[in-house]
User: Fold these one by one.
Assistant:
Number 1:
Amino acid sequence: MSSGVANAGDVAGLVGRARDGEPRAVARLISLVEQGSAQLPLVAAALAPHTGNAQVVGVTGAPGVGKSTSTNALVRAYREQGKRVAVIAVDPSSPFSGGALLGDRVRMGDHATDPGVFIRSMATRGHLGGLSWATPQALRVLDAAGFDVVLVETVGVGQSEVEVVALADTTLVLLAPGMGDGIQAAKAGILEIADVFVVNKADREGADQTARDLKYMVSLGRRDRSGPSWRPPVVKTVAASAEGLDRVVTAIAEHRSWMAAHGELAERRLRRASAEIEAIAVERVRTRLGPAGHLAELVVGGELDPFAAAELLISGNLRQ
Amino acid sequence: MSSGVANAGDVAGLVGRARDGEPRAVARLISLVEQGSAQLPLVAAALAPHTGNAQVVGVTGAPGVGKSTSTNALVRAYREQGKRVAVIAVDPSSPFSGGALLGDRVRMGDHATDPGVFIRSMATRGHLGGLSWATPQALRVLDAAGFDVVLVETVGVGQSEVEVVALADTTLVLLAPGMGDGIQAAKAGILEIADVFVVNKADREGADQTARDLKYMVSLGRRDRSGPSWRPPVVKTVAASAEGLDRVVTAIAEHRSWMAAHGELAERRLRRASAEIEAIAVERVRTRLGPAGHLAELVVGGELDPFAAAELLISGNLRQ
C-alpha cells in the first residue's frame, strides 16, 4: 500500500480527516510516521498546532502480569467516562507492525466497532532509533487526532520501560503476586519509574504480601527526598473481571492533579519535548556524519584510536 | 579512590604495567575508561598500537540458563590451553560496577590466585551511552594487556544481546531445556545473533528436544541465504560438571577458522570499529548540541514541531 501523500496539502487533508475521527486517516498518518518517510517533517508541522491535549499513560511490567487485559479494562473504564481512547502497544521484540495484523484485531475485541477507540501495535525492533524515534511521533498523531487518553503499553521489561517514562504523563507499573516482589521490583529499576503500582491478579495468593512489600519499598525509596514528592499508590486489581480498575483510573487522575498543582506536568512535558528534539537532532547528525569507512580500517590496524577517529569523522563531515 | 592519572606519561606507565600482567594496572585502566574520564582519549591512544590480538567471545542467554557457570567453565578450559583469559560481565540492570565488589570475588572462585585470569563486572545502566560506549573501551584495555581470550557475558536478554554481537568475534547463545525452545529463540531474536548454540543443563529432561528444535530453526533460517554461510552448531553441555565444554571451545575455534577463511573476521572487526567510532562521534556531537532549552517550550506550546526544532538546534550549535 503506497502512501500517496506527496505535498503539504495532502498532509493537511489527512490531518483534517484524522481530527474528524476517521480511523483510516489516523492509521495512515501513523504509518507515515513509522516508516520515517520523507514527509515526516511535513506531517509533524501539520500536527504541531493541535497537540498538547492528550493525557499519556504508560502501562508496563513483566510478561504475564496481565498488561493487555489491564489496558483493555482501562479502555472500557475511560469509554464509560465518554473519553476517546487510543492504545499504542510497543513491542520491541517483534518485527511486525501495523493495524492490519491479527494481533490488533484480537486486541480490539469488544472495541472493534467503537469509533472512540483506536488500537495500534508498533514494532520498534531495528527501527530508526527504536522507540525513541517512532513512538513519540505516533503519540503526536493521536494527540492531534483528539484522543483524550493515550495508553502506551510496553511488551517486555528493560530499556523500553525507561523510555516509556520519558513519554508518559503517568506511568503504571503492573505486578502479579509471586512474580514480582519488592526486591525484584527494585532490581528491575521499576520503583523509580512507577507513578502508580498495580498489583493485578489480586485474587491469587500472595497479593497482599506483594502489595505490602511494594509499599515498604516505596517508603524506603522516598525517605531521602527533599521537598514534596508523589508517593506512588499501590492498587490491587483483577483486570479480567475489571475489579479495581475504577481505583486505577482515580489514581491516574490524582497523579495528574498532583503534577498540575506542583508544576510537574509542565516539567515532564518539557523534558519529553527536549528528549524528542535531541533524539531527532542526533539522528539527523548521525546521517550527516556518514560511515566511518577508512577510519575503521586504521583503528582495526592499531594506527588510530577510536576517539581520534571520531574527531576526524566529525571534522571531516560536519565542517566545523 | 582518586585516579591520580594526569598526563600521557602516567598513562603510558599504566599501559606498560598492564601489559606486564599487573592486575591492578588493568583494573585502573578499566576504571578510567568506565568513568568516561577526561583522560579517555589519552588512554585510547596509548592502547591502540597494542590491540587486535584478543579473541572476543560473547556469552548470552536468558536468566537461569547458567551463563556464569558456563563462563567459569570456559575460563578453566582456556586456562588448560595455557591462554590468558579475561571476563567482562555486563549487567545493564545493576547500578554497581567495579572489581572490589563481592560479586566479582565470588565469581573469581578458583581463579582468584591465578594471574592469567581477570574478571570484571560492568554496570552499564545509566552510563554514557551504556554498553555501546564503555564496554568496547574495556575490551581494548584487556586486548592491549595481552589477554588471549576475552569473554563478554551479558546479564538478561534484550538490547544488550544485540550490542554484544557488535562486539564479539563469536557469540554463544545459551539455552536450557524447557526454558527456551526454538520458537522462543526465534521470538527473542537470538537465532540471528548466535554463532554457536549451547544447550546447557543437558542432563535435564527435554534437552534433546530443545537441541532438535534449534537445529530445525537454524535450517529454516539459513535456507534463503545465498553464498557460503556459517551454520551455528548446537552443543549440549552440563556446565556445572564441565561436561561438553571442550566441544564448545572447539566450536568457537572452528567458527574463528571459518571466519578467517571467508574474510568474515576482518569484516566483523571493521564493523565493530565503525560502530565504535560512530558511537563516540555521535556522543561528542550530542554534547556539543547541548540541551533543547527554549525550543522545547515552543514544541510543548505547539508553536514548533520537533523536526523544525531539531534543525534549529543543529544550525544554532554546530554552526554548519
Number 2:
Amino acid sequence: MQRSIQFWFEFASTYSYLSAMRIEDLAAQHGVSVEWHPFLLGPIFASQGWDNSPFNIYPAKGRYMWRDMERLTAQRGLRFSRPDPFPQNGLKAARLVMTIEAHPQRAAFVRAVYAAEFVDGLNIADDQVLIDCLSQASLPPDTLAHCHDTEIKAALMQQTQTAQAKGIFGAPSFLVGEELFWGDDRLDEAMQLAAEI
Amino acid sequence: MQRSIQFWFEFASTYSYLSAMRIEDLAAQHGVSVEWHPFLLGPIFASQGWDNSPFNIYPAKGRYMWRDMERLTAQRGLRFSRPDPFPQNGLKAARLVMTIEAHPQRAAFVRAVYAAEFVDGLNIADDQVLIDCLSQASLPPDTLAHCHDTEIKAALMQQTQTAQAKGIFGAPSFLVGEELFWGDDRLDEAMQLAAEI
C-alpha cells in the first residue's frame, strides 16, 4: 500500500497557505503521497458558536497571528499579504477543487488559489481570479461553471461532514490513518508518521 | 546586557508544562537567562467571554489536545497524567511564585508544581501538595501563608494585567523584548531571537 497523508485545508486559513506551499516537497522526500482535501470551516465554527474567524472574534489572537505569519513567511522566503476582507470566501474555490480528479492539477489549482489570496491579495470569490487559477493548473475556464453542479455542492458538504466526523476543528489538519494532527507546526511530525507506516 | 527571555506561564496550562520542563536547559545552551512570569488566564479568558478552559468549551479541540500532549510527552520522555478536575486551580501556586525572589528556587518550585499536577495527578490547590512543592525548592512550609498577603495578591493581579497589555492571550507565551511568541511550539524560535539580541 502506498504511504499517504491526508491534507485537510480551508481556503480562508492563513496557516493552510503555509502547508500548501511545502507539503508536496516534504512528502516527496519521505516517499509519501498527498491527498488534498478541501473542506469548509464555516459550518464547523458555527457549531462552536462562532460566526466569524476566531482571529477576528478574539483581537489579541488575531494580532498575534498576523505577526506570526509575517515571521514564518519571511523565514520560508514566501511572500505574504493580508487579504482584505479577511477571511476570504473560499466556497467556490473549494467546490472547484472537488471537480478536479487528477492529483497534479488539483494540487496546482490549490496552490494557485492560495497564491492569489495571500501573495497577490486578490479576492478568491472573484470568477476571473478563479479562471486564472484554473489556467495555472492547465484547466479550461469552463471548469468554473461546475461549481454550481448539485453533485459538486453535495461532495463539498460531504467533505466538511467527514472532517467533523474525523475530529477536525481547524485548518490545516493532517490525517495519517485515524491519527489527527492540527496546524502547520505538526506537518513534519505527521509526515514522519506517514513515512513509517 | 544579559540576554534574556520572559516565560509567561499559567499553572492550569498543559502546554506550559512542556515548556517549564525544558526552558532552562535550552536557555543555558543559548547563553540566555529566563525570567519566570506566572499569570492567570482566567481573567483573560473571561474578557474573551470564556468561563472555562477552551479545551472544555470546545470538545473536539480538547480531545485533540489530550492526544497531542500524549504524543509530545512520549517523544520527550516525560510522564503525563490528566488532572481531574481539569483545569486545576493554580491561584495559590501562582501567588506563591510571586513570593519567591531567587531565580533557582522560583524555577524549581514552578517545575515541582507542574510535576505534581501533570506527572502525579495531584490537586495543586491542596496546601499539603504546595508545601511539598516548596520543600522540593528548598523553601520552608511557612512560605505558604504568604499567598494570603495583600501585596502578593496585588502583585499577581499586576502580572495578569501586564500579560494582557503585552498582547498575551494564552499560555505558554514568550517575550523577547516586545516580540511575542505563543505556544511551546514557538519556544525554540523565541530562544533563537533572544540569543541573537
Number 3:
Amino acid sequence: MWKTRAYVRLKEGVLDAQGRAVEQVLKQEGYDISDVRIGKTIEFVTETKMEQDILREMGSKLLFNPLIETIEFSEDFLP
Amino acid sequence: MWKTRAYVRLKEGVLDAQGRAVEQVLKQEGYDISDVRIGKTIEFVTETKMEQDILREMGSKLLFNPLIETIEFSEDFLP
C-alpha cells in the first residue's frame, strides 16, 4: 500500500486572506513572524503506487486550482 | 531567515467529513483510493530560528486544536 500526500499552496503573489488574518493574530500575541501562508494537504491510500500522469490529472481536475495554486506530491510505501 | 512549516492533521479516529466528501468524488471519478484525510499547513517566516517550546506554545494556542488534531513542525534556513 502507498500513502500519497498532496501539498496545495497558493501561488506567490496571490493574496492569502486567511494567512493575513492568522498573521495579525500571531503578531498581536507577540510573535515576531511574517509572510504567513495557509495551505492544504490531501492524504490518501492506494494499493499500488500511482502513476505521475494520473496524479497530475487527478490533481488538476479535483484537488487544486492551477490558476492560483500549486501542488506537490509525495509518495511513501506503507509496509 | 527561517521558514517554519506547521502541518496540522486530524487525529486518527476523528471523523474527517471533508475527506469523506473528497473521497466520494474521487471514487466516482474512477480513482481507486481510500482513507482520504484533509490537513492544513501554516507556513511563516522568522528572522531567527524559533525555539521548540515557543513553537509548541504558539501551536497549541493558535494553530491547532490538541483535542482532535496533531501538529508537526519543520524549519528550514532561507539563504
